[in-house]
Design goal:
Elements (H helix, E strand, L loop, with lengths): L4 H30 L3 H4 L2 H8 L4 H7 L6 E6 L14 H11 L3 E7 L5 H4 L8 H16 L6 E5 L5 H10 L6 E3 L11 H12 L5 H11 L11 H11 L15 H16 L10 H4 L2 H14 L5 H11 L6 H8 L16 H7 L1 H11 L8 E2 L2 E2 L6 E6 L2 E6 L23 E6 L2 E6 L9 E9 L2 H9 L7 E5 L4 H4 L8 H9 L4 E5 L12 E6 L16 E5 L4 E4 L3 H6 L18 H6 L16
Helix pairs in contact: 5-12, 7-8, 8-15, 9-10, 9-21, 11-14
């Protein structure tokens, strides 16, 4: 199948836009490669330090100048259900490395905070910048320069993007992501949403809500809704950074353990000095980024990746913006309905055909690039295969060519909707993005008076006072990266959803974030320029009529421009203290705009 002309045109535009940055990045990676393996550069004392606490058998292997050494960088903690299974992975990896005459070392850990725990709490103001801390922590782990390849253990929201950004600074090394998989399905998503709505209305007790939440989030593995964590796993498949088909295999199963143990073996097979040498810099290029975009749009993935994927691409010298998302969305059909965009979870998605089916459909339609490099070998077609255990041995077979459940997964010839799940909005309020895949068409157009809030808690308090039973567009401003670190505002979703269910026309406009679990209410998010950086949001007042049209991409304020510009901008609220927020002031000051990834690590992005 020939490449779709829009996919081809967007890819070429990205290549041209990135030419200088990409050339510089590849030159730096080539220089690092020519310096040779880390152990060749280390003195005997340095090398002895690196293995001083290792078992004797590892010390014997490390004396062999041709024996590869594989780094393990892990985001393990036992507070995140998705990351708790990672505790066992280093032993599995070390045993796998030993089978092929290599060593594997736990090079370093990176922080991993849970947005599900910090939603609506002050700690959420550290969430986005934890991505940049993870990137730096990954660099610290790998900067010992004693490794021939790296395995990255991380799953959730900011963690995979941070690991990617950090590892790309060592793009001369082969890098494989080793996922943990989703938890088994618990209480139905419809019941969970019902009780959350009742609690928002004061019709369910906290004990009733907690009981429902514990039945939903009940065991080890990734939360099963299709939020940022599972969107991460989808993208790692589309970018060729996983072993094929490994995203949605349950933790603590024989197949998962076999995939984990195989990862170091494959890393050794593609290390420098082999005929299959596959550095990360060769895997993550413009075509791989376009493939990630196609997967994101086709599955209705997380809006957070309009930030994260931009920053990840930038770390590889690839420059993308929201126009690229928007143009590709116009030709990429929506193939999946996974909660909150549908009623079923990622386990049902995987059972229906999952990533192997999505990859096949996108390639067959010319909406993704097959001619890419992956950690499994050349060509994305390898990712239309699935792993199985056959007589105890790990094998790959072709995935299903037909969806096994058309209520969850459909082919390009019969999609849920002809366009992808994300849209660019622009107009008098700036540029923003909207997740359209979970919003009914009739709710994608809202024209109503603004109610302005400088803090999400003020909106929640107004709802409790009964002041929001009307048509309105909530403007929640000073929530951008420069103002307070751009926290997710997911706690607003149940309240706005209840008001919409009552028949009111409601929407949200904010320079903050919504989570990958963004719901059924139209939300213009990541508005840039943000209010704290001279954005028009700082000039909006209660009663100003705003038009949000998710069909046409409009985000307008119906106030005469001279009047709007003559207003004094609202002052930026002071940054919060406590919960560690005072330690992140330099990141807020250094953060680039949302469309550049809201990242503090690229000095010129601001």
């Amino acid at each position: 199948m020939s490449l779709h002309p829009v996919t081809a045109a967007v890819t070429e535009r990205i290549v041209e836009r990135s030419r200088e940055a990409r050339t510089d990045y590849l030159a730096r990676m080539e220089a690092a490669r020519h310096q040779g393996p880390g152990r060749a550069k280390l003195s005997c004392a340095n090398w002895a330090h690196a293995f001083a606490a290792s078992p004797d058998e590892d010390k014997q292997r490390m004396r062999n100048p041709t024996a590869p050494n594989v780094a393990i960088v892990s985001a393990y903690n036992d507070m995140l259900s998705a990351h708790q299974p990672l505790e066992r992975f280093p032993d599995l990896i070390k045993a796998g490395a030993e089978e092929v005459g290599a060593t594997a070392q736990f090079a370093g850990g990176v922080p991993a905070m849970c947005d599900g725990v910090t939603q609506g709490r002050p700690g959420m103001e550290l969430s986005l910048f934890s991505r940049d801390v993870i990137a730096m922590s990954t660099a610290v782990a790998l900067t010992h320069d004693a490794f021939d390849a790296a395995l990255l253990l991380g799953i959730c929201d900011k963690i995979v993007p941070g690991l990617t950004i950090g590892a790309l600074a060592f793009g001369h090394l082969p890098v494989i992501f080793v996922p943990g998989g989703p938890m088994s399905s618990g209480l139905s998503n419809a019941e969970k949403a019902r009780v959350r709505g009742l609690f928002a209305e004061g019709k369910a007790t906290r004990d009733e809500l907690l009981d429902v939440e514990m039945k939903s989030y009940h065991g080890p593995g990734t939360c099963t809704f299709y939020g940022t964590a599972n969107s991460n796993q989808m993208m790692m498949e589309m970018m060729g950074l996983h072993l094929p088909g490994s995203a949605f295999i349950h933790p603590n199963t024989p197949l998962r353990d076999a995939l984990v143990a195989h990862a170091p073996k494959r890393a050794v097979e593609i290390a420098q000095g082999t005929n299959a040498y596959t550095p990360m810099a060769a895997v993550v290029d413009a075509k791989a980024i376009v493939n990630a975009l196609a997967g994101l749009l086709a599955t209705g993935g997380s809006t957070n990746h309009t930030l994260h994927l931009v920053a990840m691409a930038r770390a590889a010298g690839v420059l993308i913006d929201w126009s690229d998302f928007d143009e590709l969305s116009g030709v990429t059909p929506l193939l999946a309905r996974v909660y909150p965009n549908g009623s079923e979870d990622v386990n049902a998605f995987h059972a229906a055909g999952g990533m192997a089916f999505v990859v096949r459909e996108l390639l067959d339609a010319g909406l993704a690039h097959d001619d890419v490099t992956t950690v499994a070998g050349p060509g994305l077609r390898r990712y239309q295969q699935e792993p199985f255990l056959e007589h105890g041995e790990l094998v790959w077979r072709d995935g299903t060519a037909q969806s096994l459940n058309p209520d969850i997964l459909r082919p390009v010839s019969d999609p849920f909707q002809p366009e992808g799940g994300l849209r660019l909005l622009k107009g008098g309020l700036g540029r923003a993005v909207i997740k359209t895949s979970a919003v009914k068409p009739e709710n994608l157009v809202v024209e109503a008076p603004a109610l302005v809030f400088d803090d999400q808690d003020d909106l929640l308090a107004a709802h409790k006072r009964g002041e929001l039973n009307r048509d309105f567009i909530a403007v929640v401003r000073f929530q951008g990266p420069r103002a307070n670190g751009m926290p997710e505002l997911h706690s607003l979703t149940p309240v706005l959803g209840v008001l919409q269910d009552k028949g009111f026309k409601v929407a949200l406009v904010t320079d903050g974030r919504m989570s990958g679990a963004s719901g059924k209410v139209a939300a213009a998010i990541h508005v840039t320029p943000e209010a704290a950086m001279g954005g028009v949001l700082a000039n909006v007042r209660d009663g100003d009529v705003i038009r949000l049209n998710g069909h046409t991409g409009e985000l307008e304020i119906l106030v005469d421009p001279p009047e709007l510009s003559a207003r004094a901008a609202a002052p930026t609220p002071p940054a919060g203290f406590g919960y560690g927020r005072e330690l992140f002031g330099w990141m807020r000051r250094a953060a680039g705009p949302a469309e550049a990834g809201a990242c503090a690590l690229f000095g010129d992005a601001a």
